[in-house]
Amino acid sequence: RKEVEQDPGPFNVPEGATVAFNCTYSNSASQSFFWYRQDCRKEPKLLMSVYSSGNEDGRFTAQLNRASQYISLLIRDSKLSDSATYLCVVNSYSSNTGKLIFGQGTTLQVKP
Amino acid sequence: EPEVTQTPSHQVTQMGQEVILRCVPISNHLYFYWYRQILGQKVEFLVSFYNNEISEKSEIFDDQFSVERPDGSNFTLKIRSTKLEDSAMYFCASRGLGGTNEQFFGPGTRLTVL
Question: Which whole number is the average pLDDT over A71-94?
Answer without folding.
Answer: 92
